[in-house]
Amino acid sequence: MCGITGIYSAKDSQDRQALDRLSSAMTATLSHRGPDGTGTWQDPDLPLVFGHHRLAVLDLSELGHQPMESESGRYVICYNGEVFRYLEIRKELEKSHVTFRGRSDTEVILAAIDHWGLNLALQKIEGMFAFALWDRKDKQLHLVRDRLGKKPLYVGWAGQSLVFTSELKALHTHPDFKPVVNRKALTAFMRYGYTPAPLCIYEGVWSLPAGFRMSICADLISPGSDLENFMESYWHHLRALEEQQQKYVKKSDEETINEFEKLLTTCTKDRMISDVPLGAFLSGGVDSSSVVALMQKISSNPVKTYSIGFEEQGYDEAGHAKKIAAHLGTDHHEHYLSAKDALDVIPKLPDIYDEPFADISQIPTYLISKYARENVTVALSGDGGDEMLGGYNRHFIGPKLWHSMRFMPQPVRRMLASIIGGTSIEKWNSLAPSKPQFGERMHKVGSILGMNTQEDIYQKLISQWDAPADLVIGGSEPLTPLTDPEWQPEDMSFAARMMYWDALSYLSNDILVKVDRASMATSLEIRAPLLDRRIYDYVWTLPENMKIRNGQGKWLLKQVLHRHVPKELFERPKQGFSVPIDSWLRGELRDWAENLLDEKRLDEEGYLNTKIIRDIWEHYLDGHGNHAGQLWTVLMFQAWKERWL
Length: 645
Known about the structure:
This protein is of the alpha+beta class. The chain has 3 domains: 2-235, Aminohydrolase, N-terminal nucleophile (Ntn) domain (Glutamine Phosphoribosylpyrophosphate, subunit 1, domain 1, 4-Layer Sandwich); 239-390 and 496-569, Rossmann fold, CATH 3.40.50.620; 580-645, no CATH class. It is 43% helix and 15% strand. The protein has 27 helices and 17 strands. β2 and β3 (48-54) form a beta hairpin. α3 packs across α4 (118-124), α7 (253-270) crosses α8 and α15 runs antiparallel to α17. It is globular.
């Protein structure tokens, strides 16, 4: 992986040496994303400069150095990511007498664009990427992000300069960048715990959405203009999904399992190509275990696998991972962490996630990345299985509740909601001591009993704050793909709609942000076979019972895994990758939280409603209510603000 930056200055008198120094300073903030080399490129005729920090994974020689010019000299690319099956594209180009200097995928992308043009090249390349492309002939700047949003790309204004970067911290080195909080984005963050693209926490800055591109004539754009107007999708989630659903062909279970295993094996093999040490995360869950099982099947040597465990009961999956690793014969590494190990990460979070981000599994994700990086530079993960194959509890519990609720009188619903919500989380947990999140889930069930539509139920299930506009002073909820009617599917089951919504927003804005920032903070590249476009396309050709069957999700993936691992090693309730934040906020983290939630401080800062926050905090400290997620969202904003504003 890499870190990329760029500046186009509208100042005609911009000093070239000063622009180069500024680019180098911006790029230096991203050295963690690419510790193996750095470079800049400046257009000889225009005040345009690219900066790049490289994590060398393919072609470790100088021939993979970036920014890179095409053979024709027309294009210059500044690229972050990996394109898989690039060797197939290279062979196709070589048949047309295209020649290559080195072995990098970067050079193949450039040659593909040079040969076919950007539009056709984008349809051919598959992988995780974000890149800037300068067309010297047409004087056009193209910014592109991969289909599912695995790699980040921000673009915005610093005074009269158009700037782009992999991470927002680079903007703070530009003297003309003035960080002003976008209160609409802050309102969205308080609802979801992440900032949905194209929103960004800063005014005048945007996150390029997954599957989108921007093409602008740099010398014609007006400084300060709304850059969202230049964004367009080259791959549209909803249209892609609808096209695949038209391809449904009835098949037997066995035929479908065979097809899926063959496809996932191919996608896994493609991601095992590396010129540096490679391993895999192994949590013991279905997704990572399936990927590791296929890696081990392909590999002639034991695959290096990594897991971490926690001392707290109910939060440790390392034991499950160890049994699966032993069965598969991997070279397994596990590391047990104390609460202090995890708590020590919290002060680092505003630097790792330089935009407010509140998925609590950000902590263990960083820790396992740091642990794996001691031995490998690339690791495969199981990300994507839940969104593609119905793996979240809401995918199969939500439809059941909806079916039961639809004909239930409102007074009965209210009574049940009162009983469930009136029973403390601790009491619910005491009824299921082996499930540490049981009480939280029961409260979720109680909270949706009053909902009247599928959209309302889904929104309730994924929201941290139900009325974030009341929480954010001067805030209002913006339209996002989740709420925009143009992005809503028709003639789909409730479960299928939730899977689509999750892939549309939660996957790209939460899961993949979490993994990218945590892994890149340790200079580790993560590859996810289940997020291959071929997998995405294939699963949407299948009927729902291939994903959810007998009240359980990921049926198809479990059948593949069962061919390699006994069911008793992986058949158990979904646990999730989390830490006991609830007990920490009442214990070790209480002083830290109290400082960030200080009444006088909140009043003086003027971003959040002090009374709402203090009431919930005090109620929570008294042992009442399920507020840990809400409070963590506020705390992550407060900690971020303390670092960056």
